[in-house]
């Protein structure tokens, strides 16, 4: 035998395709079809990581999803991925990987030195120390954090993409082993829309490893080939390899992630295609055929590199042509591991098999093994493994036949590898994700899925504890035939024929005894990834952490990225022994998604970057771009914030925009305001109920400002609503509140007042709205419109007209959010940009000035107009806003929120009310969000009186102004208060919040 | 303390193969009578019992837990601790809790691994920034530490965050509470259990309360799966079951119980040294001492006691995290789970007497309960011991839903935390 | 993720098409001014919040935008049925009786 490669019939690697890869800066050779783990083993690499707590040397233990140790960093830079299991990484040409633990190096690890004091680090030791001195904890923690953790988080943005695909199907089969393939075949033959997923690159499950069985007279993989050919021929069947079903949710929603390009060299990946795809599968029927995973036995120093599961040793041999050692000790308590021992022995490896059972396996197996030249030691167990960074031998002991006691010493063997098998553990995870409970099977020594499955979930094969292929396939056939019958379909074909083989019962042993009390001998690991030893479980229980959840949480058993696939049952069994209870009574911890880790990118799918959330633009956006607007994000909208001219900052631009508007004319895109068409004979009554003010007397052609309260009496939205006809209203809402108000109207109408004849249509996107604002706005409108009389008396403030503006049908409202003479023109959104440009042209002679939200805010603050969400926060009633004029307490119907206004606290004194503030120094602009104090010498905690909600420099007034809410503010006009922000306070006078044109002359002009 | 924990105790017990450790708490058979029964063996309930015994000398106390200690939201939260609440009442209550956290490991002689690495709330809009300023100033004047940060300061502290304008919702700034942080959630329950047990409190696991015994408007005891247990005072502090318990007393509560989901990544080397939260994109992330990214978001919309939610919520949360941390796209989710949160109308708790004499409720912590654990237990113990609220929880009584005196933290807490 | 049948569209659809709209059949006091603060507060804020079957409202926001009644179990999340608000109310009242 040269190196560790051995030619095996049926191996799954392609010797015609040699590859090279780099691990920890060393180049190695491999073959196409290898995993990183098989390639490393083939090259004799054993030490692959350091353990979490003690820094102990660790090597590869498993060959798939169960691997606890071999967590590697794949690739570098933007393509790097932390914490992949080497056993699941398909090798490609040029692959670059490295170990994730060991400081300063994997070979020489400081934590490993500290780990020599492991006896002083029982479970939960950090709960018991690091408490003194108090201030030192951050230092301790820094060290603890540094010592923990595996891979390094990527630093660069992910260059690859992900997508989502939805399926609505009849049958989902999870697992492409013998049972899953047969289940899919039957479902497919019955004409059901069927999807088969398997996490591996190749279908076949255990048949990829196991070579002796014959199914219907064919070798295992020939039968798999036959199945796949048949499935490919059925148009109603889809087969997805490299696809892991990782979560099962209510109503058979299964999430599965497909690795589309991870197996390709970086240079060969197609950037146009996703790296991974998340399948969201709704299946009427789920068939779980996820098999079982072999667990190791627990014995002293069972974590030395070179100790693996028997199934792993077997798989590396038969699938990848890798002998994991030259002198191998196989330790078992069941028959299955004899198969691994036999294949190794037949391949020229020197094999010793120790069986914890006095009688050993079925006689024919023992004979076959002896014939192959292997040595057999019955009634023996490993007391401890010898070696540090690699196995050098093992000390065995003789075991009592019934009690787990040592009855004598055994041989000390010189071996380079130890394989152990503690029996199989059914992969019940998906079954349990949303409430299913596995049951303990004392014959098979595993928690298994019940034969009857759950509603619309069938369980077939090894997941039910049927370890023998013949049993698994006949149970699969019967179960699937029954469920097809339930779906009104017959099944065609007979169950595949597999010869039944005699099997001896396994021994119920999990922890091999070493003759010493637990905790006195060599550490025997249960959970490799979290360094949980058998003694730790005993200690936890001694300290009264007796619930299995407490054992798990106190020791960290099963918390790793392997999710306890190897460790859980051993841990439960050891806990059961310590508690003196049967395992079934101890139960399991909760199985949670995901079965194996899933990339955040796959979860997010396409909803990242620009498509994280829709971005809404108004119809006029291109015009704003052309005028170099800066934008503000408001909800999903992008609104012009200000329009800087060359060299202007925000303040310069806003000052110019404000003055231009107050002195001549400005123009603003108001299209984002929510608009709802309210129509019907009871529309008016509906408005009476939904708004706090009265709508009974609003004539067609008139507009009114309305306040909307929630049932708690607090202001939730506001806006101007125009009466178009007696039964027809054009409602506007805030930009951010549009969707909420629309649902609000619908829900009250449908749930509470269905008798009202009214309907609602959201028209926000249908209208483009251009506000023309300022003393010259009338002249601009007159130039654009011939069929509306803009005369001061004919078209008054708060009037609305329909007509033609710039040749377009339009609704024109004379409303003002600035206190100026102003008109809002609404036209079909498709003509919005045209309208805007026409207004710009018509206004050119008045130097019409486009302005954005910032100027809008200043103009409205000069008038004391509120912005819901800025000057209110969900705790402001109309009275608090000095807007009791907008509350029709005498309206016959008790409008929404009215009753709440009468509650003792809401109607009482001491509430905060909206006021204006003038800083005594007119050059000082108060900080928005600053708090208000009555005295400068208030000490912390200070009696805060309110806060500044809006604050600006008013170019028009040539000074700063602010709006604020202030305790009992309505009674405090003239007071001086102190406005406090970040340690500095500024005096300001309480004034009316109307700073400009208190009489309203300008807007009525 | 009989079995005091220290480095010395570790060495001593290590030499004895860890065979001499005493139970962290005792598990006695329930007695027939107690002075006070606490229903719910989570962090809040155990803390209540601990402070009843320690500060009020009431030691004849039973804590009844239907499952295992700390198995509810204590086991299921994302461990964020902060006190930077907007309104005075809330800020004072949570700050009381934060101060207790700061000495808790020493007080309990149990390291709860309270890590004051700071909590950052990032803002993405001008209004977010106004709200951040308002809250920070209010915090400072309430004696709560607060800093407002620029994008560059955020980037300096959290190098992996994206502060560029390439994102859908660019980051404009943040508020930061340096004294905030995270703790080891399970340890809090165990530490309080050990402390309470040491003071004489009976901790009874696997004991489900099935009914409340009320006579003439007074509480007399509880029916349990282990028989009737009598007490003149009963404090209910069982998040996720508050409405169910209230119904046993014929009471209605202003609560809705929703699923709240969270997930962790695989364990990685330290890459984020604080807690980053965003209300606007709906996600928050910190890194546990073990190296996992701990991630959460908003609640599921519907009522649910199933301890599970809908996967699209998790998918959206992953997207939100990638929005802020584009490199985390290649990090993998290891495990996800769900809890049940009792959401109140004003996002503030209810710590209150009820119209039944001797029956008290502590509930409605929504998504923010973990951070309050010691503070909640402390004031609830006072409320029970004196049959009168502590000044810090007077405002959190049930009657605020009649008078309208809500403490509306919604504006400050649109996202779960 | 729930699958909800809209009684108007007569189609079963993923939860993402719908919006939860709270407990169903909460009675708004007919004359709010005639009830005391506590009664009003009970209507505005207090909820049944049962661990078990729950009558609730969902709105088909990405569909017909109708609000309808669903009877759903809050632990198993099983849905017993969905009805128009009017049809559901009769069943609801029958159950309450």
TrEMBL record, chain C:
Keyword Oxidoreductase carried by entry: yes
Keywords: Oxidoreductase
Keyword Oxidoreductase carried by entry: yes
One GO biological process term: tetrahydrofolate metabolic process
Source organism superkingdom: Bacteria
Pfam family name, one: SoxD
Entry's Gene Ontology molecular function annotations: sarcosine oxidase activity
InterPro entries in alphabetical order: SoxD, SoxD_sf
EC number: 1.5.3.1
Protein name as catalogued: Sarcosine oxidase delta subunit
Organism field: Aquitalea magnusonii
């Amino acid at each position: 035998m040269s190196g560790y490669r051995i030619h095996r019939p049926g191996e799954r690697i392609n010797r015609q395709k040699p590859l090279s890869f780099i691990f920890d800066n060393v180049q190695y050779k491999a073959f196409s079809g290898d995993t990183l783990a098989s390639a490393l083993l083939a090259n004799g690499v054993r030490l692959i990581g350091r353990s979490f707590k003690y820094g102990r040397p660790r090597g590869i233990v498993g060959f798939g999803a169960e691997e606890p140790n071999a967590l590697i960093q794949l690739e570098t830079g933007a393509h790097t991925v932390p914490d992949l299991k080497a056993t699941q990484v398909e090798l490609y040409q040029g692959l670059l990987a490295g170990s994730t633990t060991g400081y300063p190096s994997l070979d020489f690890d400081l934590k490993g030195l500290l780990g020599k004091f492991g006896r002083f680090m029982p479970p939960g030791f950090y709960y018991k120390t690091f408490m003194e001195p108090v201030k030192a904890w951050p230092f301790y923690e820094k060290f603890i954090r540094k010592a923990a953790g595996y891979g390094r988080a990527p630093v660069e943005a992910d260059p690859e993409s992900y997508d989502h695909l939805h399926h609505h199907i009849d049958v989902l089969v999870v697992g492409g082993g013998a049972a899953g393939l047969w289940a899919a075949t039957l479902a497919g033959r019955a004409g059901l829309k069927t999807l088969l997923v398997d996490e591996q690159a190749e279908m076949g499950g255990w048949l990829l490893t196991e070579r002796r069985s014959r199914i219907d007279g064919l070798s295992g993989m020939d039968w798999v080939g036959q199945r796949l050919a048949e499935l490919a021929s059925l148009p109603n069947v889809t087969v997805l390899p490299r696809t892991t079903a990782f979560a099962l949710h209510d109503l058979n929603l299964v999430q599965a992630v497909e690795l589309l390009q991870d197996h390709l060299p970086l240079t060969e990946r197609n950037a146009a295609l996703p790296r991974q795809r998340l399948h969201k599968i709704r299946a009427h029927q789920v068939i779980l055929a996820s098999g079982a995973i072999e667990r190791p036995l627990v014995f002293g120093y069972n974590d030395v590199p070179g100790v693996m599961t028997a199934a792993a040793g077997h798989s590396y041999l038969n699938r990848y042509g890798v002998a994991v050692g030259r002198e191998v000790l196989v330790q078992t308590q069941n028959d299955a591991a004899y198969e691994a021992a036999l294949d190794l022995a037949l391949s020229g490896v020197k094999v010793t098999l120790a069986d914890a059972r006095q009688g050993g396996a079925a006689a024919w197996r023992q004979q076959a093994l002896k014939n192959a030249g292997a040595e057999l030691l019955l009634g023996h167990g490993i007391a401890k493994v010898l070696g540090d960074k690699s196995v050098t031998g093992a000390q065995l002991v003789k075991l009592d036949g019934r009690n787990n006691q040592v009855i004598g010493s055994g041989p000390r063997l010189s071996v380079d590898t130890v394989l152990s098998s503690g029996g199989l553990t059914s992969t019940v995870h998906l079954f349990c994700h949303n409430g299913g409970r596995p049951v303990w099977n004392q014959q098979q020594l595993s928690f298994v899925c019940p034969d009857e499955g759950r509603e619309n979930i069938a369980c077939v094969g090894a997941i039910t504890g049927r370890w023998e292929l013949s049993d698994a396939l006949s149970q699969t056939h019967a179960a699937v035939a029954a469920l097809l019958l339930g779906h009104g379909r017959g099944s065609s074909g007979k169950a595949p024929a597999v010869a039944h083989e005699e099997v001896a019962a396994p021994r119920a042993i999990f922890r091999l005894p070493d003759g010493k009390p637990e905790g006195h001998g060599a550490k025997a690991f249960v959970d490799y990834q979290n360094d949980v030893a058998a003694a730790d479980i005993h200690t936890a229980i001694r300290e009264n952490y007796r619930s299995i959840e407490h054992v798990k949480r106190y020791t960290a058993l099963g918390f790793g990225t392997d999710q306890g696939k190897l460790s859980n049952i051993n841990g439960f069994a050891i806990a059961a022994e310590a508690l003196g209870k049967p395992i079934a009574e101890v139960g399991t911890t909760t199985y949670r998604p995901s079965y194996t880790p899933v990339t955040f990118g796959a979860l997010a799918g396409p909803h990242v970057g620009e498509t994280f959330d829709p971005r809404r633009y108004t119809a006029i956006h291109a015009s704003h771009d052309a005028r170099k607007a800066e934008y503000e994000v408001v909800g999903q909208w992008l609104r012009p914030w200000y329009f800087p001219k060359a060299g202007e900052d925000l303040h310069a631009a806003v000052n110019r925009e404000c003055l231009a508007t107050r002195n001549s004319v400005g123009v603003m895109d108001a299209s984002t305001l929510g608009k709802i068409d309210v129509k019907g004979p009871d529309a008016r009554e509906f408005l009476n109920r939904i708004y706090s003010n009265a709508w009974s007397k609003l004539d067609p052609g008139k507009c009114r400002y309305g306040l909307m309260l929630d049932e708690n009496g607090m202001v939730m939205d506001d806006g101007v609503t125009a009466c178009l006809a007696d039964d027809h209203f054009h409602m506007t809402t805030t930009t951010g509140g549009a969707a909420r108000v629309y649902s609000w109207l619908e829900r009250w109408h449908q749930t509470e007042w269905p008798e009202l004849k009214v309907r609602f249509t959201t028209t926000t996107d249908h209208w483009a709205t251009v506000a023309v604002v300022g003393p010259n706005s009338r002249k601009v409108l007159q130039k654009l419109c011939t069929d509306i009389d803009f005369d001061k008396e004919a078209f008054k403030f708060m009037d609305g007209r329909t007509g033609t503006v710039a040749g377009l049908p339009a609704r024109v409202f004379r409303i003002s959010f600035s206190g100026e003479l102003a008109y809002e023109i609404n036209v079909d959104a498709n003509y919005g940009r045209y309208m805007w440009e026409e207004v710009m042209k018509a206004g050119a002679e008045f130097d019409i000035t486009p302005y954005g939200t910032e100027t809008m805010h200043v103009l409205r603050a000069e008038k004391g107009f509120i912005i819901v969400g800025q000057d209110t926060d969900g705790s402001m009633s109309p009275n608090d806003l000095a807007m009791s004029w907008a509350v029709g307490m005498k309206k016959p119907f008790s409008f929404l929120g009215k009753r709440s206004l009468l509650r003792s606290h809401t109607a009482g004194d001491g509430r905060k009310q909206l006021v204006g503030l003038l800083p005594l120094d007119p050059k000082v602009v108060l900080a928005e969000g600053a708090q208000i104090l009555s005295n400068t010498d208030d000490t912390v905690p200070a009696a805060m009186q309110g806060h500044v909600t809006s604050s600006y420099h008013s170019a028009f007034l040539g000074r700063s102004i602010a709006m604020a809410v202030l305790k009992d503010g309505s009674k405090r006009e003239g007071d001086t208060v102190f406005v406090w922000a970040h340690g500095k306070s500024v005096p300001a006078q309480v004034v009316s919040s109307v700073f400009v044109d208190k009489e309203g002359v300008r807007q009525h002009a | 303390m009989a079995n005091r924990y220290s480095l010395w105790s570790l060495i001593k017990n290590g030499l004895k193969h860890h065979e001499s450790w005493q139970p962290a708490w005792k598990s006695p058979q329930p007695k027939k009578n107690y002075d006070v029964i606490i229903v719910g063996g989570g962090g809040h309930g155990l803390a209540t019992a601990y402070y009843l015994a320690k500060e009020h000398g009431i030691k004849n106390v039973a804590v009844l837990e239907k499952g295992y200690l700390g198995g509810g939201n204590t086991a299921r939260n994302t461990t964020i601790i902060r006190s930077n609440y907007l309104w005075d009442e809330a800020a004072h209550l949570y700050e009381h809790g934060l101060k207790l956290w700061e000495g808790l490991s020493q007080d309990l002689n149990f390291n709860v691994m309270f890590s004051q690495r700071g909590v950052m709330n990032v803002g993405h809009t001008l209004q977010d920034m106004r709200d951040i300023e308002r809250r920070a100033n209010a915090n400072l004047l309430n004696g709560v530490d607060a800093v407002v940060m620029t994008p560059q300061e955020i980037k300096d502290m959290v190098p992996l965050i994206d502060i560029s304008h390439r994102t859908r919702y660019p980051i404009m700034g943040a508020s930061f509470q340096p004294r905030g942080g995270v703790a080891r959630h399970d340890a809090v329950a165990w530490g309080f259990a050990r402390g309470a047990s040491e003071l004489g409190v009976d901790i009874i696991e696997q004991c489900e309360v099935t009914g409340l015994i009320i006579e003439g408007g007074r509480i007399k005891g509880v029916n349990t799966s282990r028989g009737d247990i009598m007490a003149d005072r009963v404090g209910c502090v069982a998040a996720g079951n508050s409405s169910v318990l209230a119904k046993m007393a014929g009471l209605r509560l202003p609560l809705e119980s929703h699923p709240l989901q969270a997930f962790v990544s695989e364990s990685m080397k330290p890459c984020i040294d604080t807690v980053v939260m965003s209300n606007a994109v709906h996600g928050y992330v910190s890194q546990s001492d073990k190296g996992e990214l701990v991630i959460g978001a908003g609640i599921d919309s519907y009522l649910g006691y199933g301890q599970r939610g809908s996967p699209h919520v998790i998918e959206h949360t992953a997207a939100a995290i990638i929005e802020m941390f584009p490199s985390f796209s290649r990090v993998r989710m290891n495990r996800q789970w769900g809890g049940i949160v009792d959401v109140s109308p004003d996002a503030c708790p209810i710590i209150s007497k009820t119209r039944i004499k001797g029956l008290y409720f502590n509930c409605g912590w929504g998504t923010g309960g973990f951070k309050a654990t010691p503070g909640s237990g402390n004031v609830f113990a006072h409320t029970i011991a004196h049959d009168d609220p502590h000044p810090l929880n007077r405002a959190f009584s049930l009657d605020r839903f009649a008078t309208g005196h809500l403490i509306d933290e919604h504006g400050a807490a649109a996202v779960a935390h | 993720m729930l699958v909800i049948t809209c009684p108007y569209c007569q189609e079963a659809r993923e939860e993402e098409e719908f919006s939860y709209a709270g407990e169903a059949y909460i009675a708004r006091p007919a004359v709010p001014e005639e009830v005391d603060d506590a009664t009003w507060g009970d209507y505005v804020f207090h909820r049944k919040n049962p661990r078990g079957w729950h009558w609730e409202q969902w709105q088909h926001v990405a569909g017909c935008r109708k609000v309808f009644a669903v009877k759903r179990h809050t632990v198993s999340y099983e849905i017993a049925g969905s009805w128009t608000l009017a049809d559901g109310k009769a069943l609801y009242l029958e159950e309450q009786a």
